[in-house]
Design brief:
The protein has 381 residues and is of the alpha/beta class. Helix content is 42%, strand content 18%. Helix 3 links the parallel strand 7 and strand 8. Helix 2 runs parallel beside helix 3.
Length: 381
């Protein structure tokens, strides 16, 4: 269907399963923007909502903000999301779609979906969303073995979609023969911009961590660095994670003597999340691996600069736009936060231009057209 491809997205979970965080927002925004540009867009997903199920009718199309979404029951209640009904629907209907775009990896839903398309010799797009990174593979010998065989054989018809140049480079090293296209996530930001509130104690540095609380997020490293600061500071932590891991972080904070400087908020979403960005001086994210990191763009959009590691997918964009710091050296971060040299210039630029920069790059019809052009180019191959 030249000029107007019929697009199917396959994703383990879909809105309103907000419990899964950023990927739900990014994929649903992509689908909605494609629909707004006149494309025929369908979604195959499951009723997954953490350990619970979404209260929706299954196996029939449901209009979710202009997108035709099919929810299917899953047999497993964990991150594997095994759904035979979805696989059967895909087997019967794959030929009716010009483009099939699969999101995520290392779960039974995406693995079996790829297997179905492999049997039908159907080309598809795969967005692994960081799940084929050296960090992920380095923590699992079984996954490394799978990629050697049968993984590479199974994925030979995949066209990879990376959300950042960093992820594209990682995929190229693993799959040099596959086509790889780099297009960023959609990042939904509120309008109008939230205003920064005047600080009651301007001499105190107010930092924010807003993300899933997970070992790869570099919180131990962040705690250690902050414990060496010579100025007053606070750190707000907004997010959820494994209770045992969170307990270990709290114990580590006690060991470092910084427990009174930390404020644990749990999950914060909606308008409260964006106000939280605006109420802090910096967002800190020293992750060991992030294929994109929506929170970085959200923070910049709210006028709050970021302190991130080079392993965050948006690190090049942060450097180009001068909306934060990409910090390779622990000592440089300590010096930066202790003396605040050059901070005013970066902060002023972020408050003045951050919203516009994010909207142009990650939330515009131009980005939607880039995705559509990508799909159209595959249809013509």
């Amino acid at each position: 269907m030249e000029g107007r491809p019929n697009i199917l997205h396959i994703v383990p979970s879909y809105k309103p399963a907000w419990i899964y965080g950023g990927p739900i927002m990014s994929v649903s925004e992509l689908c909605q923007w494609e629909s707004h540009t006149g494309q025929e867009v369908s979604v195959y997903t499951t009723t997954a909502n953490g350990k619970e199920e979404l209260p929706v009718q299954t196996g029939v199309p449901i209009d979710v903000e202009g997108v035709s979404v099919f929810y299917f029951n899953r047999w497993t209640k964990d991150h594997t999301h095994f759904s035979p009904a979805l696989f059967l629907k895909l087997w019967k209907n794959a030929k009716n779609f010009d483009c099939i775009h699969i999101h995520s990896w290392w779960n039974l839903l995406t693995l079996f979906s790829v297997f179905v398309l492999f049997l039908q010799r159907k080309k598809y797009i795969l967005s692994p969303r960081g799940m084929l990174s050296p960090y992920t593979l380095g923590h699992s010998g079984l996954k490394r073995k799978f990629l050697k065989f049968p993984g590479k054989f199974l994925l030979k018809n995949a066209v990879f979609h990376a959300t950042s140049p960093q992820e594209a480079s990682e995929l190229k090293a693993l799959f040099p023969q596959n086509q790889i296209t780099c297009l960023p996530n959609f990042v939904k930001i509120p309008d109008p911009v939230f205003s920064h509130n005047p600080k009651s104690e301007p001499d105190i540095l107010n930092l924010l961590f807003l993300s899933r609380i997970d070992p790869k997020k570099g919180l131990e490293r962040s705690f250690l660095i902050l414990s060496e600061l010579t100025r007053e500071w606070t750190l707000t932590l907004a997010g959820t994670g494994n209770p045992n891991y969170i307990l270990s972080l709290k114990e580590y904070a006690v060991t470092l003597g910084i427990e009174n400087k930390l404020s644990w908020k749990g999950h914060v979403g909606g308008k409260d999340k964006f106000q939280l960005y605006a109420d802090h001086d910096f967002l800190i994210l020293l992750s060991e691996n992030e294929n994109f990191a929506n929170v970085v763009a959200e923070s910049v959009a709210m006028g709050t600069p970021v302190l991130i590691s080079p392993q965050v997918g948006l690190s090049d964009w942060i450097t180009e736009t001068q909306t934060g710091w990409v910090l390779k050296d622990k000592n440089k971060l300590v010096d930066l936060l202790s003396t605040l040299q050059s901070i005013n210039q970066i902060s002023e630029n972020t408050r003045k231009n951050g919203y516009r920069l994010v909207k142009e790059a990650f939330y515009s019809v131009n980005l939607a057209k880039k995705y559509v052009n990508f799909y159209q180019s595959l249809v013509k191959q």
